[in-house]
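Format notes (please read before filing issues)

Several people have asked whether sequences and structure tokens are stored in separate files. They are not. Every record keeps both together, in the order shown below: the sequence lines, then the token lines. Line labels are part of the format and must not be stripped during preprocessing.
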Amino acid sequence: MTFSVFGKQRSGSAPEPFDALDGPRLAGPEGSHPLHDVRPEELVRPSRGPIAGEIVVEEPVVVGGSVEGLVRLRALERIDARRAAIRLVGMRLDEVRRSESHEDAEGHTTSTEEWVEVDGTLFAENAFGEPFIAPACPAGATFEGRFALPAPRLGPPSAHLGESIVAWALEVRWDVPMGEDHFVATHLPVAQHPDLIRAGVGKQGGLSILDAVSVGDAVISVSTPLPAAPGSEMDVSVLWPSASGGTAGRVELHRRTNAPNAEWSVVASVPVDPAALKSGAGIRLAVPVGVPPSFDGAGLENEYVIRALVDRRLRPDAAIERPVAIA
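Then the structure lines:
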């Protein structure tokens, strides 16, 4: 769908090799979320230039692990580049609110339009000398070789936050003087490593992996192993002696992020009798399939809290919460 403001077609963009969708699909009217329907693998352009080939990653990749596989290449024309290398590249893609105003001859604003467009930046460009890729070769030349590379040591993992995306790609790139670089690329999913969270790496460890966390006179406990996995259930208990009487209560799983066009969201909720909270209430809280992992990196944060609330008539709700990790 084409979106325009003041007759100008609006579009979004991402750095190569994540530029396959550059254009009007990465923009939308005020209040829209153009990234919601974008899959990270759609972003990666598989090749550019006179190169055919593929990069095959043989095993799932996790933060702090390794990337192993096979690369096959064939030159369709002669290639003359300054250098060539296999690279691991990471990109952050955000929805950004934009606006444009029009003024009359006297400088008075006559109209203002607002829209959302997508903007991406590379935060990692890690080149490796092995396997050796020839920077210059004749037409018809072929190459096949194995690789074993380090995955991102501390992350961030791949994540689709709805309004922001963290994506990784593996590419072979030829640095061409006085011209566009050639490349062959593939999308590389990188999963969060539960052991890093358990070790307290970044902001996602600490209290978020403890069985029980005290909040004033209350205690919120999780008896199932943490970090929790998407698609699983957490056994949660809330002991809140000072919980005020109210009309209703609930225990919720909240996701919070600093993505620029995002809002905090409730991803799971279970009703509970407010009176039961005083003596200790046990519930099973579902972690939805497909929720992004807990992480902080590339300037983005994604975190979760378990929040207990009591609805009180004619007064603000009473609430307590604790952090919890998901990987």
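For reference, the curators noted about this record: The mean pLDDT is 93. The chain has two domains: 4-191, 195-324.
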